[in-house]
Write a structure and sequence with these properties.
The chain is mostly helical. It has helices at 3-14, 19-29, 35-42, 49-60, 69-78, 84-96, 102-109, 118-130, 139-142, 147-154. The radius of gyration is 17 Å and the shape is globular. Mean pLDDT is 85; it is low at 9-15.
């Protein structure tokens, strides 16, 4: 077998449950496609949605991934950590909030591997049903707005 193919296979085996999706998107769109946008976010006013998102990504050593920037936005607004357990909890919230897209349901289905979150999923779902829909909010819509203002409109502790 070609050494290059073996290295790719080895890399695929080391990816986390959702890492293969990011890997695939980076292969399709390139790893640095959104670097200019991340630079813009880093230079926005403090406490704006965009600046806070950039700081969160920088703190974790992550970058904006094509087709995932609005997903990362939801993490910052809904205040879910970027862990697998919080990812699954957020997906339950989003399904309750009206997001029944294929990726959302796939991520939620990973709950089968995390019994520690099972008890929380119904309450996350119910909370999502009670809140204003965040489904169509994009990073471009709100990156220059104060994060606290957006959390009041769309966050888990904001609107009723």
């Amino acid at each position: 077998m070609n050494l290059n193919i073996l290295l790719h296979i080895k890399h695929l085996n080391t990816l986390k449950a959702t890492g293969w999706i990011i890997w695939a998107l980076e292969k399709i769109y390139g790893k640095t496609t959104l670097d200019p946008k991340l630079s813009i976010l880093r230079n926005l006013e403090h406490e704006t949605v965009g600046r806070e998102l950039a700081e969160m990504l920088d703190e974790k050593g992550y970058r904006l991934i094509p087709k995932f920037e609005n997903h990362d936005l939801k993490h910052i607004i809904l205040e879910y950590q970027m862990t697998m357990q919080d990812e699954i909890r957020m997906q339950a919230y989003l399904v309750g909030n009206g997001n029944r897209t294929f990726p959302c349901l796939i991520f939620l289905s990973l709950a089968v591997f995390y019994p520690s979150v099972w008890k929380k999923l119904l309450s996350e779902y119910k909370q999502g049903k009670r809140k204003k829909s965040i489904h169509y909010l994009t990073l471009n819509d709100c990156m220059e707005k104060p994060l606290q203002e957006i959390r009041k409109l769309y966050g888990r502790t904001g609107n009723k």
